[in-house]
Amino acid sequence: MNTAVTSEQVMHWLDEVPDPEIPVLTITDLGIVREVRVDESGGAVTVALAPTYSGCPATEAIEQSVVDALGEHGLDDVAIERRLSPPWTTDWISDEGREKLKAYGIAPPAEGAGKRALLRGGRAIACPRCDSLATSLVSEFGSTACKASYRCDECLEPFEYFKCI
Amino acid sequence: MNADEALLTYVLRVADNALITGQRMIERVAGEAELEEELANANFALDYIGQARMLYTYAGELEGEGRSEDDFAYLRDTQEFRNFLLAEQPNGHFGDAIVRQFLFESFYLLQLEALADSRDKRLAEIAARAEKEIRYHLRHAAQWLVRLGDGTDESHARVARSLAEQWRYTGEFFAGDEVDSILQSEFRGPDLDALREQWLANVTEVLEEATLAVPGETFMATGGRQGLHTEHLGFLIAEMQHLQRAYPGASW
Predict the structure, then answer these.
(1) Residue A33 buriedness (CB in 10 A; 0-12 / 13-18 / 19+)
(2) Where are the domains of chain B?
(3) Which chain B residues touch A90 with a CB distance below 8 Å?
(4) Nearest neighbour of A87 by CB, restricted to B35, B128, B138
(5) CB of B146 within 8 Å of any CB in chain A?
């Protein structure tokens, strides 16, 4: 690699790396790309990523897809740094990401991850299809750790909700 | 014991609690009564194993002898594990498992909240990450406990028995030793007396909602953190480590 790259350029390329579990979102939509560093020669790149959940099985897959994506742009000296702090929360999902989630049929996380009470439920979640607030929680868990299962009592469609954490 | 040794021991204790709890939950995979619980349980287990991995990796760096997360998980014998006795108790019926998770997570959440403020940056980072997950787990366990306790006569009676049987393992949470003292003084670790008070208040609130009586003073079993375990841990370890013991270095 002879041509120097800039961190902005790398960030732009990372804009195209999808999340393996919710492919309509890119990793920049998710807010997990914390920093891109390019060394002075412009050859070696370090990408700092925040893991979402401790046990997220996609963590390694995402790291590999970053290495692969940058490799396709001719960068073969890419180091991944896992950055735990500050911890990722769903508040980091971009507005664009929230729109994409909704269009995909997944209700985006209600803002304000905060500390919910142990026994009392949270706020009502709007149906991503008909926007009704008359929805019921079916299960705190869905097809992945980050989603809960809901049902819309208005249009009767089941949908997934990207949980706040 | 110096501060470095205390920190290493402490990190291993937290890691062992996470791993053994996660392993117990894995045992329930494909054994739940309904699909939603199946998903919840598997997801919880993943969180625990993920937390254990981060903590073991850190322990390996603190120790500086080249041990990896797998070495700690798969190549130590029962007496070397430092988890609470409660964590290793068998799953039993659904109510038993819910009570175990509820009692432990009520403590673990407070422990993580305190550790997130620790002077040891790495431990604080891991705790801050894990805390968000355990808060969610605890909500799940607490809600089920209320449903079972305030449910039918049968579910109430069974879960009351689970509580009476497992309460004896909760004293260990607060039986501090030199490691806890050093962690508190040198690394701004948890104040166990304050934690006990908060734990009891939180647990009492949920038990009352569940129409369950808070068990009275009773004999408290300890020993987990000295490596003196109940007979149940050996079987868990044997199953968990079988593959690495039979085929050393196997990976996939």
Answers:
(1) buried
(2) 3-214+224-246
(3) none
(4) B128
(5) yes
